[in-house]
Amino acid sequence: MQQGAVIRLDGVTKTYQAGAPPALADLSLDVAAGEVAAVMGPSGSGKSTLLNLIAGLDRPTAGTITVAGRRIDNLSESGLARFRARHVGIIFQFFNLLDDLTVQDNVLLPAQLAGASRRAARARAGELLEQMGIERHRDDYPARLSGGQRQRVAIARALVNSPDLLLADEPTGALDTATGQEIGRLLQQLNADGQTLVLVTHDPALAERYAARTVRLLDGRLESAGVPA
Amino acid sequence: MNWPGSNWPWIIWLGPVRTASGGVLRHKVQAVAIGLVVLVSTASATLGLTLLAASNTPFQHAFGAQDGAHATVTVNTARASTADLAATRHLGGVTAAAGPFAESVVQTEFGGQPFGQMALAGRASAGGPVDDVVLNAGHWPDGPGQVVLDGSPGGGGPGLGSTLTVTGVPGAPALTVVGFGNSVTSTADGWVTPGEITRLQAPGMPPSVQMLYRFTHAASYGEVRADVAEVSRALPPGAVTGTASWLAAELQATSNGAIMEPFVVAFALIGLAMAVLIVGNVVSGAVVAGYQRIGVLKSIGLTPAQVVVAYLSRVGWPALAGCLAGVVAGNVLAIPVLHNSAGAYGVGSQQVPWWASVVAPVGMFALVLLAGFGPALRAGRLSAAEAIAAGRAPRAGRGYAAHRLAARLRLPRPAGLGLAAPFARPARTAVTLAAIAFGATAVIFAFGLNSSLSRAAASQTHSATVPVRVEQFGPGGGGPGQMPSAAQDAAVAAALRAQPGTLHEVAVYGNGVKVPGIAGTVNAWAFGGDAAWTGYGIIAGHWYDAPGEVDVNTAFLDQSGLAVGDTATVYTGTGPRAQVTVRVAGEVFDPDSQARMFGSTQTLPGIGTPANLQLYDVALRPGVSTDAYVQAVNGALGSRSPWQATSQHDGGQFYSIASGLVGLLAIMVAVAAGLGVLNTVLMTTRDRVHDLGVFKALGMRPGQVLTMVVCWIAGPAVVAAAIAAPAAVALNTATVRAMAGTAHTGIPASFTQVFPPSRLALLSLAAVAIAAAGALLPASWAARARPAVALHAE
User: Fold this and answer.
1) CA nearest B37: which of B367, B274, B356?
2) What are the residues of chain A with a beta carbon less than 8 Å away from any beta carbon of chain B?
3) Could you give the ipTM of this predicted complex?
């Protein structure tokens, strides 16, 4: 195992239906702190399953998962929710912003759920909105924003609790090329500031340009773990 | 291509419908909610229709078959001739008449005991154009000394061959009971041969006859009074000395089942409204949630009619099951009520009429389909493209302001998110709110009605104010043996006064009296001392407090046409003190079809005689044990005394059945309301499953999800409580008044004032309880759902 690994998967298997081939089979993987790892593979290779398991959104059928120094495969639902709130930020392909909340309320939500003080949460949200360049949209609703702006809101929301790990599922998949590159640069900047990042993507260019290491999956198995930078 | 089965076009037509509807089993919770709410409504409707039939049919049927008399008019033949009487047969409103039948009101004894006052009529035969008396046993009198009694043999009274002694007339003639008959309007207490009446006339009493009439219009006391007034005008002044309306007989036949009808109808209406709301909500929810599905189904060839049928079938099957189960439940619930009702009518047994078991479920099923038809039609009319576009479009911007406001409140964030959520779907929220309000109204109403009924029961039995009674031979008195001696009577009064636990005691005398304008006997009760503490509920006026004043029940006022403040002449028998003039000081709650009068022995001296001493009412000092007191009094009286002390208990069979029925119906309606909430929360959970996944991905814990989902319904529940509380108060007041109206009695205001503010506030929490109970199950499902599953479940 790498020293200072933020993520460690050890013999992880995920099977959705008894008798069906596993979505992930006996996968072992480490991701170091401050690293950007891109997870690539064709559809059905197990990328999203891997992301869900690392984020604590789902549980493995076998094996152990340790994230930010905590075993998460044996946590209760409440424990997993607390873990997600404190240690993981998730960016989705289709943003998954809540339509009926303003930009600011979307960003504040994880902090409020984690029990942060009102003042501290607002200060942190304001800081992130400014950092993402969308401060002037704080009172707008997501439906009024462009795709790039929405993804910036989603990134701000993912970062509001200063997570140990940022997980991005096809973060540029719903964006045009220029906006995609803009978001890529933003993620790169976050990594430069020390943020550990796992990117799930179909886009080899994105992986090549921004990730120091590419993990390749095929039919639920690790094809190549890449070389940590 | 020619597919197999194309010879059966309906199968071809319905196949896609079955597929499109998704099947009932895929929507189990919705199916159960619809089924149960329809069950409640159908059961209530069946019971309501049954009570309606039970309360009216037997009397109406018998009245029609026996050509019952709308009015029995007693005429003084010293003032009206036979020709005068014959002329009344041809008056405008008279459709049939019988008589004149000579009549005499006599005092009787049976087995050496007073048997009461009886109105005897002389009739040559039982039949006639009016009041065709049905002979139940024996034969019609065909000679002197014979009598047929009104009623049936048995029950401890005289039987066939028994002898009654007529007192107060020369020679104290004996009458042998040769038969029992039934006059539907009880025109007389017994019948003898026409020639017998002369022998039964008390000296000094004017000779009188009875005329029996049927009129064109006689549906109300007012109409009957008007008809009788017409007859009176056709006769010489002062000739008419008494009248009896068929409505009094109908009232007497009206069962407790009829009294229950108003609240059963109230519950049926609540259930009905809830069924419509919940079914409409289910189908609307299914249409809204299934826009894309509708579009896809239409794009592959489903016709609008097939879409409509597909959505209706989703509610139709559970509704059908609910209707069938409901009609069975209604029949089962009707058994104890009908048993009670049949006893009151004396008709042996009553069944649920077949048409009630058909009309209730068919009507309810039609109503359910009608409720679902609107949204189903909307689904059918949507074009495929519109439906797909509507299904994919983001939700409209409703509820955003509420979320913005909630975000600024100092509430836990999940609670704020939950409280703002109902604004996103105002129509669904309104329907759910209404369902909760109906459920809470039913619960509050049930508590109120039980309190009202308890007060009525306590007021009727006086169990709270008169916990102990001393009667001859125990409850009811009048057992076999000698009348108590004066010494034994005095011993009772002495024993009661000697008990340290006695707070009040009063001797109560009773006998039948005659009051002009009221046919038949008025039950008069005279108290031998202060009786204000006996606790009769005052409907109007006040408890008598001066000589010459009496209180009367509602039946007295209805039948006499008198009002509080009026005066009446009372004949208490024969002798110089027999006729007194009294003023009606108040109307008291004493629900009985027979007119009753309450006064002091000073006001009604003819009643306050040792022979009429019926019982002693006793009130106890606070803290005195009723049972210990009764034991002590009976010990003091000794085992040989004909007097016996007993404790008074609340209620009776009617109140037990009514309370049980109210509770059961309220529980059923509350459960149905809870299921309506469950259904709504489930639909909302499904609508927002993706958002729930996002919340969870962002770190919302299961407990926070539970809080948020329960808060979805908290706002509507609070509003529903605010609506339900005054609605239940109004419903209770209206229902209790309707019940009193059915029982032909007024009610004291205290019977409806059963909701002090603190109690009402507490009962209003029923809305919150119903909402929480309904929301908890889907909330816990939502809390348990894996975020990865929720995120991909859209």
Assistant:
1) B274
2) 52, 55, 57-59, 77-78, 81-82, 84-86, 90, 96, 98-102, 105, 108-110, 112-114, 118, 141, 143, 157, 161
3) 0.87
